[in-house]
Amino acid sequence: MEIILSLGPELFGLLTLPEQRQHPVAVILLNAGFIHRAGPYRMGTRLARLLGEAGYPVLRFDLPGIGDSIDLADRPETDVIRGVLDAVAKQTGCQRFVIGGLCAAADAGWKVAVADPRVEGVILLDGIARKGAWATWARLRRLVRKPPSAWLTAVRNLRGRPAATQDEPRDITDAALRDWPAVGAERREMQLLVGRGVRVFALYTGGTSYFLHPRQFRATFGRSASAPEVSFVHWPESDHVFHLDAHRQRLVERIRAWLQASFPPPAT
Predict the structure, then answer these.
(1) Are 216 and 248 in contact (CB under 8 A)?
(2) How far apart are CA 179 and CA 63, in angstroms?
(3) Are 242 and 167 in contact (CB under 8 A)?
(4) Annotated domain spans of the chain
(5) Burial of 89 per CB tally in 10 Å (0-12, 13-18, 19+)
(6) Are 115 and 86 in contact (CB under 8 A)?
(7) Per-residue model confidence (pLDDT) at position 170
(8) Each residue of 118-128: pLDDT tens digit?
(9) Which fold has domain 2-130+188-262?
């Protein structure tokens, strides 16, 4: 069953409710960037309904500045989302939450998880990752597999590129385009989440320009990346928005399996 849930002035979402027994953990699926809450190829809708069948209440809504929440762009995103948790708790009785989504939704979910102790699980699809030495190594490996002509082209491009002046705009980095914490803060934040017992599902695809090697995950988050509460998955064969239906189906099934293993239904 799906209902329209008022989340406050000028804000509402779609709440998927289980037909049978309800789980005490609710899932909040945030929209990805400028994509509507249905998700790429309606992946968010499919995931919400699958999780609803498994007994979890699931809310989908548009973040401030997007879709139905366009008029909320001037409000702090984290404050809006924490208010959404209040509304879902009032409607469902759930006081425990899993939150996240793809790209910008992963970034927002991470911030809320750090700020709100009610969040006990985070879904990070192509979330934060620092490039570092492992990304450089991956680029070099790709380059050596190319024919010599590609090497010559790369060298010519580097030699022919004019030096940047102080007045010229700097290259836009991944961190500048995304809402990531300050460099190094992600390690402390992961340690904080793991210390609270928060379950983390982090999946990276081959569709990003910044995550090029699986060892970047531990290099980004440090020792906490190997904690039993953290599940790391690397799917280099998948693109960023899961264009292939087989990849979308694989993803929603994987998230459901992780959720059921991390938050099993209470004993009857």
Answers:
(1) no
(2) 13
(3) no
(4) 2-130+188-262
(5) middle
(6) no
(7) 47
(8) 999 999 999 99
(9) Rossmann fold (3.40.50)
